[in-house]
Amino acid sequence: MAENNLVVLNQELMQKTLAEESLVLVDFWAPWCGPCMALGPVIEQLAQDYAGKATVCKLNVDEAKEAASAFKIRSIPAVILFKDGAEVSRIIGLRTLKTYTDALDALLV
Questions:
Q1: Which of 27, 45, 62, 76 lies 20 to 30 A from 99 at CA?
Q2: For 104, phi and psi rounded to 5 degrees?
Q3: According to the model, what pLDDT value does residue 6 have?
Q4: Phi, psi at residue 39, to the nearest 5°?
Q5: Which CATH number covers residue 14?
Q6: Assign residue 37 a region: left if phi > 0, alpha if psi is -120 to 50, beta otherwise?
Q7: Strand 86-92 relative to strand 78-83: parallel, antiparallel, unpaired?
Q8: What is the pLDDT of residues 83-100, one digit of tens each?
Q9: Into how many domains does the chain fold?
Q10: Residue range(s) defining the domain that contains residue 13
C-alpha cells in the first residue's frame, strides 16, 4: 500500500484487489487529465478517512489500458465502486468529496 492507505493499481493488482477486498473504490485517471489531478487530493482524503473500511485505489489508464477497456472507461476521471468484486456504482467526472463519501457510506450499511 502507498502512503495514506492509497493503493496504486496495475492490471494484475486490480484483479487481486477486487477478489480479496469487500469494498473497493477505484479512481481511473491519467496524469495529463486536469480534472483527474484536481480529484487526486479528494481520493487521498478518502483513502485516509476510509482506512480499514474500504480499499481506495488509483489506476492510471495509460499504464493499464486493458483494465480501462475491460471496465469500458470512456471518460476520466471515472470512479467505480465495487462490492464483493462486482461493480455497484460509477461516478464520472470531477465531483465533491461528499459525492464520494455518500456513495461509500451507502455501501457500508
A1: 62
A2: -65, -45
A3: 76
A4: -75, -20
A5: 3.40.30.10
A6: alpha
A7: antiparallel
A8: 999 999 999 999 999 999
A9: 1
A10: 3-108
Amino acid found at 95: R
pLDDT score recorded for residue 8: 81
State the cell numbers at 51.
482506512
Cβ atoms of residues 57 and 24 within 8 Å: yes
- Rounded-to-integer distance, Cα 98 and Cα 19, Å: 27
All three cell numbers of 99: 459525492
Taking alpha carbons only, the member of 79, 61, 60, 88 closest to residue 2 is 60
Which one is catalytic: 13, 23, 30, 33?
33
**pLDDT tens digits for range 23-74:** 999 999 999 999 999 999 999 999 999 999 999 999 999 999 988 999 999 9
Is 36 considered catalytic here? Answer: yes
* Residue from 36, 61, 103, 104 carrying the catalytic annotation: 36
The identity of residue 107, as a single letter, is: L
Mean pLDDT of 1-17: 70
d(CA 94, CA 65): 21
Res 4: pLDDT:
54
